[in-house]
Specification:
The complex is a heterodimer of chains A (383) and B (134). Chain A is of the alpha/beta class. Chain A has helices at residues 29-44, 66-70, 89-103, 139-154, 158-172, 186-191, 219-225, 252-268, 285-294, 303-308, 325-328, 336-349; strands spanning 12-22, 53-57, 79-83, 108-115, 209-217, 233-242, 277-279, 319-320, 362-369, 373-381. Chain B contains no helices and ten strands. In chain B, strand 7 (79-86) and strand 8 form a beta hairpin. Chain B is globular. Classes of the chains: A alpha/beta (383), B mainly beta (134).
Amino acid sequence: MSKRLSDFRPVFVVGVGLHAYQKYSPTPYVALGVTAIREALADAGVEWPEVESAFVATALLGMAPGRPMLRHLGATGLAITHVENASASGSTAFSLAALEIASGQSDLNIAIGVDKPAMIELASRQAGLDFLERERVAAFTHFALLAQKYTHAYGATPEDFARVAVKNLANGARNPYAQRREAKTLQEILAAPPLAGFLTPLQSCPIGEGAAATILASEDGIRQLGIDPRRAVRVLSSTLRSERIYADNSGFDAALTEETVRQTLAEASVAPSALDIVELHDAFTVEELLYVERMGLCDPGDAPRRLKAGHFDIGGEVAVSPSGGLIAMGHPLGPTGLGQIAEITRQLRGEAEHRQHPNAKTGLAHMVGVGAVCVAHVLRREA
Amino acid sequence: MSDRLEHPTLYEASELGPVLLGHRCGLCGLAGFPRQSLGCESCGADGDNLKPATFTARGALVSFATVHRHLGKDIAAPFIMGEIGLEDGPLIRCTLSAGAPSDLRIGQIMIGALEHNPLAEADVRELRFKPESV
């Protein structure tokens, strides 16, 4: 019978670091990545030569960006694995790094995500099949279609969707690593010309550049390297799935999230109601409403009411995207999933400063990637 | 001389109106669009198990959105994109005929028609959908 992450030895996040997400700049990706790695090393209190392997996540940089970046930390000969899984690249790198520690193959490794904006063609465009819509449906139109369905099903209003951006932009304003650090009112978010349907630009994530790094360790690694175990956050579960054929026409996005999150919560033996922090794939506002419902955080159709009542705020029942999420923190692709892990780690340690959710103990990270793929992890503070 | 089609591999004209070119799996029955023989998305059957099939351009409106920005060069925004659950099975996305979103409601029956795109050559027609009752 196949095994799960939780069937192996425990895995912990012991260090996190980021380069702030930002608009495209002349800064080379190497400088972005090295900044995040050095911050993560300092956070963990370990030296680069102690890192046994590196998983490098990127979706846009091209072939083999790892070694030109990592050489500046010292060419130790460590194993380097590149990971591309669209928007879920960072999450997938984290999953592979966690499994490597869990299996006993290494005691200390790093997952690093780094990217810069670039125009690339999706491989699906080269799959040899034509479609009626061709280039007339951008990502925001896909989600505008989902929003229209949600509106039809539950009577939601444009304001219901825009409130996701109000909350996440307010959270991002408190995050020094966020690309968008300015809170906006409901009126400001709705005033701009829409992209498609009633989705306006501030209800869509910015694609910028940045880097995020997480250092993972085993209990042996923590002990041998003198890492502070009180700041270590355990990885309880790791789940990757991809889209299936679904019976109805409600859309694969929410269905894939539901089955992936259900599986990862089961592996972690955590109920949805026990989650204190959720960092989810809110590339577009409608996604947050759909996903919190399908994750089991509230009943179908009840997300707008709970959002408006502050249940998903920092200090609410469960803080959803306290980092600002993709809407405010940004979505540089390769780093995004690892940035979620960094935020959850800081929240569970009680180190999130101005955006700290009180008494946070358990967190869920969730990313979706074009394809579609879905990756979810549950983390818990045990000390 | 008859009109040319914008996507001749995706649809064709028939006496009863346009039909979409897809396939049906001989093993699991899944109806797929567009037509291909590489493998059934449900059960993986391939080759001769995937039988060419034509689907009537008629189905229920699943969703719609007015598109204000897009990457296509062959149509001017705004236009309305629709999702239609064909009566023969597949879910497709297709441009809707000119009209207002207020004319549309999810669940209503839509039918396809071969229409001229103002940005295309004069003898080129493309498949678009519109409410059956209009």
